[in-house]
Amino acid sequence: MATRPTSVVDDVVLVEYFHFALQTFPSPTVVLDLGIPEDVVRGGLGGATFRSAATDHYATVRLELWPAPPPSAGSWHAQQSTSFTADTVALRLMSPTAGVGDLPLLLPAPGGYAICAHVDRTGPIPPPRDTTFPRGLERWLVRIWPL
Asked: Are 17 and 25 spatial neighbours (Cβ–Cβ below 8 Å)?
């Protein structure tokens, strides 16, 4: 078991339509085709999609790359593990319609990876608003390691 991540990216993603994604770039694969997960995360070719409890808000996301399975992350509102296949080495956060993040998490090589997504819901879910996307409703920890 590893004791610390080899790489960390702290970013913010716009959650739209109750989800967001982690996509390999550049890639011919569109990870959003995986759809919205039933629970927390759904992995597949090109990355993973994540289900939020709210729509139209900004969530903080910490991406961690580990060399081996990480230790427990402690208590979170919800967590789920799955796997995905990376067809390139750069992963970026992605909103369904608003664009792609600027901060890549670089993988050691294309191939199979395990992913464990943790989410804390840190604020009450407000009714949808027309013009203001709130911050601070959720924080995410996404841990990734080679299979």
From this structure: no
